[in-house]
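re: ur question from yesterday

yeah so i grabbed the chain u mentioned. its 308 aa long if i counted rite. heres the sequnce exactly as i have it in my notes:
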Amino acid sequence: MPWQIAISQPSELGESPFWHPDEQRLYWVDIPARQVCRSTGSDGSVERWSLPSEPGCIAPARSNAQGTGLVIALRDGIYRARHWGGELALLAPALHDPATTRFNDGKADPLGRFWAGTIYEPRDAARAQLFCLDARGGRPPVLDVKAADATTANGLAWSPDAATLYWADTPRHAVRAWDWHAASNTLSRERVFHSWPGKPEGWQPGRPGYGGRPDGAAVDAEGNYYVAMYEGGRLLKLSPAGELLAVFAVPAPCPTMPCFGGADLRTLYLTTARHSRPSDELKRWPDSGCIFSMPVEVPGLPVNFFTD
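ran it thru and got these structure tokens back, copy pasting raw so excuse formatting
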């Protein structure tokens, strides 16, 4: 395996990683621990910021061209923090019932808007949605629904030319794609980008016969889509046409989301999970929950900043 352990302190459910270019730090969230985490990776130390509810996703934020803090999607709304550990100012309350639904995967788009999908926790209906928050130029924040018909929102990403948006519904084992007009923020020509067989009936963790389901994703400078396959123990590289280009076995069965980092964006980081996993699985894969990294030849796209 090409992977090395980048962060050895495990998260229960690591998600939403991004590399901050100004700080040269890796950020991520631990959802059930209700923490935002960050590390330079140089000495293995991790800073943890406890929050009042589960952070589904985060993005770096910028005001007046200055990098200032984070935007954070908590269970009941989207918040703005001006600095690490700072006061959380509500930008927009959630449009869902936080008793059954919370924000999940999300990130900022190339024009500075923040997108966050939801997860419908009963998982018995396709009630999850994809939202976009626009607060650019000091305008009053507006939260709009951009897509729906999902149960667990994941896999959000944009192509390098900002013409295609990707979004996965994890239980459906499919990634959808749309043509995206960035200036008007409109989606059209919905199609299935790639899909996989569902979980076999009666399948149990640790058994063969299941390749996992799509979780978080990232896109490189050539437009290739990297997607973590939860319970499949692998990361897949798909071409812009949806063709499978490479399979990377992961030393943890539940990878959650990749991102590109390092000064040259040629380090691929990958968060993983250990939350609610069987004890025998954790004995076999004791590094579950750690963050892994490997070098890549094609750099990734730099993280987008939320702008207000």
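noticed a couple things. Residues 279-284 form the longest helix (6 residues). also The longest strand covers residues 186-195.
anyway ttyl
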